[in-house]
Amino acid sequence: MFWKRLASGIVLLVVAIAGIALGGYVLAGLLLLISLIAYTELTKVLAGEEKYRPSAPDVIGLCAVASYYVLTVLSYHPTGAMGEAVLSQLGYWAVLTAVFVLAELFAYVLKFPAYDADRIAGAVFSFFYAPVMLSFLYLLRELPGRSFLVWLVLISSWGCDTCAYCVGKLIGKRRIFPVLSPHKSLEGCIGGVLGAALIAFLYGVFYVNRVLGETGMTVPLLIALVAAVGAVMSMVGDLAASAIKRNKNIKDYGRLIPGHGGIMDRFDSVIVTAPATFLLVVLLI
Question: Cα dihedral sign for 119, 57, 242, 198?
Fold first, then answer.
C-alpha cells in the first residue's frame, strides 16, 4: 500500500506541477477535469445512495461546471490592478450562478417529488465547494506579474500536510480533533504551519526576490505570511472534507487515485487554500 500510495502521489505531483507551469488552456482544462470528478464525488456522497445514479440536478450541475470554466477562460483578462483582478468578472459569474440555481429549482419543481430538497441543496453546494473554489488556482496563475506566486497554493497545502505529518509522527502528543481526525496533533498542526511558512520564505528569498529585483526581506516575509494563513486554511479544508465523510459514514470519496482515494480526498486542502491564497496575494503582494 505504501509504495502504491507513493507512486500515485508522485504521478499526481508531476501532473499538478506540469499543469501549473504551463498555465493557460492546459491548466484550465486540467482543473475542469478535476472539478467534474470532484463534483460527481461530492454529489454521490451527499446523496447517500447505495447505488448512485446521476440525476437531473447532478447533470445540470456538471453542465454548470463546464460552462463556468469556459466563461472564466474566455472572460478573465486581469491587468494586475486589484479591483479589476477581482471585480471585473463578477457580473458574468453572477448571471451564470443565477441561471444554474434557477435550473436546479425547475428540476426540483417539475420532477417533484422525485428529488428532495437535500438533493438540490447538495448539487448547489457541490458546485461552489469544489469547482468554483478550485478555479482560483487558475485565476492566480493568470495574474500578470504575479503568476509565479501560484506555487504558494501547493506550498501551503501539500507542504503543510507533509510537515504536519512528519512533526506529528515525531513529537505529536496532544490530539486536537479526537473525534473528527484522531491522528491530528497540536504539535503537528503547528509544525505544518511553520514548515509551510519556512518553505515559502526560502522561495521568496531565492526566487521571488530575484524575479522582482528585490533585495530586502519584506516580500519573503509577506510570502511566508500568505503561506502560513494558507496552511491554516488547508487544514480547515482537510477537516471539512473529513467531517462530510464522518457524517456520511464513508472512508474515501472514491477509488480513482490508488492509495489516496478520490479527487476530493487528495485535493481537499487545495480547494480551500486556492481562494485564500488568491485574495491574500492580490491584497498584500
Answer: negative
Q: pTM for the full model?
A: 0.90
- CB-based contact 280:229 (threshold 8 Å): yes
**Spatial distance between the Cα atoms of 156 and 203, rounded to a whole number of angstroms:** 12
Confidence category of residue 191, pLDDT binned at 50, 70, 90 = very high
Range of the domain at 263: 2-284
What cell was used for 191? Answer: 509544525
Query: Could you give the number of structural domains in the chain?
Result: 1
Least confident of 13-22, 28-37, 222-231: 13-22
Residues 6+ apart with CB under 8 A from 86: 279, 282
Q: What are phi and psi of 185, to 5 degrees?
A: -120, 160
Instruction: Tell me the chain's radius of gyration from C-alpha atoms.
Output: 20
Q: What string of DSSP letters covers 110-160?
A: HTTTSS-HHHHHHHHHHHIIIIIHHHHHHHHHTSTTTGGGGHHHHIIIIIH
In one-letter notation, the amino acid at residue 99 is V
212 neighbors 219 (Cβ within 8 angstroms): yes
Q: How far apart are CA 278 and CA 265, in angstroms?
A: 22
Q: How far is CA 100 from the centre of its chain?
A: 21
Establish whether the linkage from the previous residue to 113 is cis, with ω within 30° of 0. Answer: yes
Q: Residue 68 in contact with residue 135, Cβ under 8 Å?
A: yes
Place of cell 491522528: 183
- 3-class DSSP assignment, residue 175: strand
The grid coordinates of residue 152 equal 504558494
Would you call 256 helix, strand, or coil by DSSP?
coil
Dist. CA 108–CA 127, nearest whole Å? 16
